């Protein structure tokens, strides 16, 4: 039911009240802090695109269309790209969902008479243009990235990739030798290996503490604190466990901070720094095997290749931290040639010894 009295707030005023509301929801557990901040960031972007002094109720479906198009064409400042780094289809979908939630609340509490989102006509094709590139890396691309990370962990990284200041803070003065506590090669290698092989959410990665990693019966585990306060204990692959031990022994600064991943200044690494780490390691990959990828794309990579290698679906679900098997469908991307490989190795056509 439409409220009786309309409160003609400006876009800025309504956004401020809405952001305060969603941040308050973190206190009750209705939203995780990370999710609330994503909503808040999108609403702030919406204010900038809509005009902070405009009255929210004056926005029409055409205005919403213009805002969606402006966002789609807005450069993605998190990473450089040949096409200018415009917003990905997933970012556009998230942005639309965020402002849709804002307008639903606005209609409920009397900030707008009619929800303009219901009048928007811009289609996904018009917003995004071309179909987004598949998010999961191919096996060759993933192995190239993992190989580059292993080289870093083995001490062959050197300083050619831009030094430690590429993430977690400004770089030291150019030409000045790096102190040991400013070197980040082992940390960068560990970040890429954890993301590529275990597929954690980036929030779970940067939230990890040293004490979250423990050994049981000779196996190294990571106790991951996920969404909704849920935890899962996931065993580390032996290679990754080895890099973790090396990092803890000689790659992590001695500090009272309990965070696993530290900037070269000794502070907990921020979510936004993780992309810079991936990009820096990617620059060491052979160009023929290199493709840009986000932290979430590496989560897709983990799921895709575990499932393609016939790993039990429930095991993959537990690794990724999903409560429902059906959710895995969103993380399973197609791989080129996989159908041909599956049919060549058809289980019903193998001989008794396992040979075709």
Compile the SSE list and pairings:
Layout: H1 11-28, H2 33-50, H3 61-73, H4 89-109, H5 124-128, H6 139-153, H7 185-198, H8 202-207, E1 213-216, E2 219-225, E3 231-235, H9 238-251, H10 271-282, H11 295-308, H12 313-320, H13 338-344
Antiparallel strand pairs: 1-2, 2-3
Write structural notes for this entry.
The protein is mainly α and 356 residues long. It has helices at 11-28, 33-50, 61-73, 89-109, 124-128, 139-153, 185-198, 202-207, 238-251, 271-282, 295-308, 313-320, 338-344; strands spanning 213-216, 219-225, 231-235. The protein has two domains: 11-128, Tyrosine recombinase, N-terminal domain (DNA polymerase, domain 1), CATH 1.10.150; 139-343, Intergrase catalytic core (hpI Integrase, Chain A, Orthogonal Bundle). Helix content is 46%, strand content 4%. A three-stranded antiparallel β-sheet has the order 1-2-3. The longest helix has 21 residues, at 89-109. The model is unreliable at 79-84, 124-133 and 158-181 (pLDDT under 50).
Characteristic terms for this protein:
2 domains; 356 residues; DNA polymerase, domain 1; hpI Integrase, Chain A; mainly alpha; 3 strands; globular
**Helix content range:** 40-55%
* Order of adjacent strands in the largest pleated sheet: 1-2-3
Secondary structure: number of strands = 3
C-alpha-based Rg, rounded: 23 Å
Q: Distance between termini? A: 66 Å
Low-confidence stretches: 79-84, 124-133, 158-181
Structural class: mainly alpha
Most strands sheet:
3 strands, antiparallel
CATH topology-level fold name of the largest domain: hpI Integrase, Chain A
């Amino acid at each position: 039911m439409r409220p009786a009295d309309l409160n003609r707030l400006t876009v800025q005023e309504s956004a401020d009240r809405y952001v305060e509301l969603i941040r308050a929801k973190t206190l009750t557990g209705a939203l995780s802090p990370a999710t609330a901040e994503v909503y808040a960031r999108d609403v702030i972007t919406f204010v900038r695109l809509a005009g902070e002094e405009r009255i929210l109720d004056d926005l029409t479906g055409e205005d919403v269309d213009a805002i969606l198009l402006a966002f789609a064409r807005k450069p993605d400042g998190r990473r450089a790209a040949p096409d200018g780094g415009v917003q990905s289809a997933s970012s556009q979908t998230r942005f639309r969902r965020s402002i849709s939630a804002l307008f639903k609340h606005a209609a409920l509490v009397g900030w707008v008479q009619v929800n303009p989102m219901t009048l928007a006509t811009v289609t996904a094709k018009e917003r995004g243009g071309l179909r987004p590139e598949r998010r999961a890396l191919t096996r060759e691309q993933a192995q190239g990235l993992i190989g580059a990370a292993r080289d870093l962990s083995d001490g062959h990284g050197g300083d050619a990739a831009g030094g430690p200041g590429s993430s977690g803070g400004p770089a030291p003065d150019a030409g000045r030798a790096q102190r040991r506590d400013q070197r980040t090669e082992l940390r960068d290698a560990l970040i890429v290996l954890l993301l590529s092989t275990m597929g954690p959410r980036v929030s779970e990665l940067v939230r990890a503490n040293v004490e979250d990693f423990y050994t049981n019966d000779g196996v190294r585990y990571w106790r991951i604190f996920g969404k909704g306060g849920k935890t899962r204990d996931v065993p580390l692959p032996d290679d990754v466990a080895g890099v973790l031990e090396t990092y803890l022994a000689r790659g992590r600064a001695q500090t009272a901070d309990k965070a696993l991943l530290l900037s070269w200044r000794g502070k907990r690494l921020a979510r936004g720094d993780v992309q810079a780490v991936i990009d820096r390691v990617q620059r060491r990959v052979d160009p023929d095997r290199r493709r840009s990828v986000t932290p979430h794309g590496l989560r897709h990579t983990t799921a895709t290749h575990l499932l393609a290698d016939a790993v039990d679906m429930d095991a993959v679900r537990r690794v990724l931290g999903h409560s429902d098997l059906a959710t895995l469908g969103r993380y399973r991307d197609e791989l080129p040639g996989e159908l041909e490989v599956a049919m060549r190795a058809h289980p019903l056509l193998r001989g008794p010894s396992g040979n075709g």
